[in-house]
Amino acid sequence: MAGLLQRPQVAATCLLLCCLTGGLSIPDPRQRDALIQLEVSMQTGGQMVLTEAEERLDALLLKVKREEILRADFPPALHFFNARRLIRASPIFSLLQKMPKGGALHVHDFSMTSVEWLVKNVTYRPHCYACFTDSQSFRFIFSSQNPKALDRCSPWTLLESLRAKMVNATDLDNSIMGNLTLFTEQDPEAAYPNQDVVWNKFEQAFLMMLGLVTYAPVFRDYYYQGLTEFHTDNVMYLELRALLPEIYELDGTTHDTAWTLKTYQDVTRQFTAEHPDFFGARIIYTIHRGVNISVMTGVVEAAMKLRRDFPDIMAGFDLVGREDSGRPLWYFRDALSLPAERGVTLPFFFHAGETDLEGTEVDQNLLDALLFNTSRIGHGFALQRHPFAKVLSRKRGVAVEVCPISNQVMKLVKDLRNHPAASLMSENHPLVISSDDPAMFGASGLSYDFYEAFVGFGGIRSNVGSLKQLAINSIRYSSLTLKQQQEALALWQKHWEKFISDNAP
Ligand SMILES: *[C@@H]1O[C@H](CO)[C@@H](O)[C@H](O)[C@H]1NC(C)=O
Ligand SMILES: *[C@@H]1O[C@H](CO)[C@@H](O)[C@H](O)[C@H]1NC(C)=O
Ligand SMILES: *[C@@H]1O[C@H](CO)[C@@H](O)[C@H](O)[C@H]1NC(C)=O
Ligand SMILES: *[C@@H]1O[C@H](CO)[C@@H](O)[C@H](O)[C@H]1NC(C)=O
Ligand SMILES: *[C@@H]1O[C@H](CO)[C@@H](O)[C@H](O)[C@H]1NC(C)=O
Ligand SMILES: [Zn+2]
Question: 336 and 251 in one domain?
Fold first, then answer.
C-alpha cells in the first residue's frame, strides 16, 4: 500500500523539479497528470486495487454520475425531504441499495424503524390509548385498565374505539405519522426555519414515540423490525446507541436496564440465527446530556457493571441530546474518569462537534472526547475547525461517524456538496457513513446516506474503490474484536463479490 503512495509522489516531485529547473512557463502536462493522480490516490479508497469487473462497474457508475450531476434538480443540492423522490428514481441509488455496505455504526434505538410500521402495526394493537397534548402532539400508552391522566394532555382514548367510530381512519393515521417524524411533503425550509424549531419537533416526536416503543411486546418487535429494515438494505452489522429505558407491561409492572439490554441480546441472537448472512449487533448505552452530575455518576457506574455482565452485546457508552443546549463533556469530567480511575474498560463513543457554534464551550467537545480516549467521534461536523483534534483522530484511528442527512435536516449544512466530510474523504481520513435517526428523517437503513456521501460530497472523483473502502471502514472501526472483524470481513467479501458479479456490465 505504501508503495502505491510513493510512486506518484516521487514522480510528481521529480516533475515539479524538472519543471522549475527547465524554466518553462507552461506547466508540463505530464506533471499535471501526475499531480491529478496523486490527489486521487489520497482519497478514501484511493489505494484500493480494483478487479476487472469492479473497473467495469466503476466506468458505468461514473457515466451515470456525470449525467446526474448535470441535472438542474441535483438531489444532494436539495433538502432531503425534497430530494427523496428523486433519489429513489436514481439508478445509482438502486445500486447502492443492493451493495453490501458493511455496518451502520451510528444509529439511535427509537429511530431505526419506519414510522409507517409503528402506525400501521403498533397503534392498531389492542389496549393502545392516546391523548392529545396542548401543544398539538400525542402521547401513547398500552394498558389493561384506563390509565392515569397526564398533565397537559386530554383524557386517554382507546384508539381501537376511536377508530371504530370513524368512517375512515386515514387522516388520523397520517396525523399520527406526521407527528412521529420530521419528514414533510411541505416546504421543509418553511416548516423548519431554524435549529430550535427542528430540535423542538425532534424532541416532541421522541416523547410521543416513547410510550409506544417501551411497551415490552412492542419493544421486541420494534427492534426486530428495525434489524429487518437494515438487513433488507444490505447492512450486515449494527452498533445501536440505546437509552435502555424502563420497559413496561400491560399491567404497569416494569423492567430494569439489565432486562432491556438482555432483551436486545436475545432478539439479536434470534435475528442472527434466522439470518445467517447478518453478522450481529452491539449496543452503546446512552444517557441524555441534560442530566445532573449525580445522575451521570450513577449511570457510568451502571454502564461499567453492564459491560462486565454483558460483554458480548455491550460495546460502550455515549451521551445524547442536542449538544448546543446540553452540558459539555467537560462538565461531567469526574464521572467520565471513573472507569480509567478504577482500571475498568468502558469504551466511549462520544457524539462531538455536532455544532456550528465555533469556539464555544460546546465546541470543545471534540478535543475533550479525544482526551477521554473516545473510540470514535459521532458526527465530528466541526472537525475541520480543530486542526489538532483532526491530527489526533487520524493518528489514533478514531473514525468520524458522518451522518449527511442528519446534518442537513438538523440544519448544519444546506447543500450536501458543501458537507465538511468532503475534504475528509478527499484525504482518506478515518470515517464511516451512517444514518443517525433514519425514521425521523423519512429515510431507512443506510443507502440514502451512502447516496448523499457518494454522489454529493464524494463528487465525481469518489469511485467503486471509495465505496469498498467505506464498507471496509465500517468493520475495521467497529467495536468488534480483531477476530470478529476478520470473520465479518470474510462474510462481507463474499457478498461483495456476488454484488460485483451480479451488477458489473
Ligand atoms: C405486526 O408485527 C408483528 C411482528 O412483526 C406481526 O406478527 C403482526 O402480524 C403485525 N400485525 C399487523 C396488523 O401488521
Ligand atoms: C380515506 O381517506 C383518504 C383521504 O382522506 C382517501 O385517500 C382514501 O381513499 C379513503 N379510504 C377509504 C376506504 O374510503
Ligand atoms: C400532528 O397532530 C395534530 C393533531 O393533534 C395535527 O393537527 C397535525 O396536523 C399533526 N402534524 C403533522 C405534521 O401531521
Ligand atoms: C439530579 O437529578 C435527579 C433526577 O432528576 C434528582 O432526583 C436529584 O435530586 C438531582 N440532584 C442534584 C444534586 O441536583
Ligand atoms: C486515556 O488514555 C491514556 C493513555 O492510555 C491514559 O493515560 C488515560 O488515563 C486515559 N484517560 C481516560 C480518561 O480514560
Ligand atoms: Zn446521533
Answer: yes
| Distances, alpha carbon 10 to alpha carbons 44, 48, 426, 500, in Å | 20, 19, 20, 33
Total domains in the chain come to 2
Q: Are strands 103-108 and 237-242 parallel, antiparallel or unpaired?
A: parallel
- Alpha-helical regions (H) of 43-129: 52-69, 80-88, 91-98, 115-120
Residues 1-13 have pLDDT tens digits of: 343 444 445 455 5
Helices (H), 372-481: 387-396, 404-409, 421-426, 447-451, 464-476
Nearest-CA residue for ligand 1 atom 13 is: 121
Tell me, yes or no, whether 181 and 293 share the same domain: no
Range of the domain at 107: 88-115+202-501
Question: CB 398: neighbour CB atoms within 10 A?
Answer: 21
Q: Is residue 47 part of a domain?
A: no
Which three cell numbers, joined as nine digits, stand for 307? 459491560
Residue 197 pLDDT > 90: yes
Residues 137 and 272 in one domain: no
Given 201, 234, 265, the domain boundary residue is 201
Q: 207 and 196, same structural domain?
A: no
Within a domain: 36: no
Residue 400, in any domain of the structure: yes
In Å, what is the CA distance from 134 to each residue of 38, 202, 204, 239, 279? 60, 17, 12, 36, 45
Task: Give the residues surrounding ligand 4 with Cβ less than 6 Å away.
Answer: 292, 294-295
- Residue 56, domain member (yes or no): no
Residue 124 Cβ inside 6 Å of ligand 3? The answer reads: no
Q: DSSP string covering 214-283, please?
A: TBHHHHHHHHHHHHHHHHHTT--EEEEEE----EE-TTS-EE-HHHHHHHHHHHHHHHHHH-TT--EEEE
Helix %, strand %, coil % of the chain (to 5)? 55, 10, 30
The pTM score is 0.94
- Ligand in closest contact with the CA of 336: 5
| pLDDT tier, 504 (very low <50, low <70, confident <90, very high otherwise) | very high
Distance, in Å, from the CA atom of 354 to the CA atom of 286, rounded to the nearest integer, reads: 16
Residue minimizing CA distance to atom 4 of ligand 4: 295
Alpha carbon of 137 to ligand 3 centroid (Å): 7
